[in-house]
Amino acid sequence: MTIRKRSVSIAGHRTSFSLEDPFLEELKNLADRRGVSFAALVRTIDAKRPPDTNLSSALRLTVLDDLKARCNAATENATSVPGDAPSQPSGSRSGTSPSS
């Protein structure tokens, strides 16, 4: 997979980062979902990243975090039905045994 160098303006100066195309596409999708420009998303990520993390890594980790959160949300939605209580075997009441 090819890594491509990109540039964006942050705080009035051009900043470069290197990303693979799939990460770039997911970042653009994330910006769209948040209703912000790509540059605004990169600025936000840049401002929040730890000082010992380079921008390219911070961008990749943001994509990973977003995809994990969406997968977890999809899994939770698929396994729970609103208003659905756990079912109990018929003929039994909670707290009693069938032989009592």
TrEMBL record:
InterPro entries named among the record's database cross-references: RHH_dom (IPR027373), RHH_sf (IPR038268)
Low complexity bias locations: 86-100
Gene3D superfamilies in the record: protein bp1543
Domain Ribbon-helix-helix: 4-66
Chain residue ranges for the region called Disordered: 75-100
Pfam families recorded: RHH_4
Name the UniProt record assigns to this protein: Ribbon-helix-helix domain-containing protein
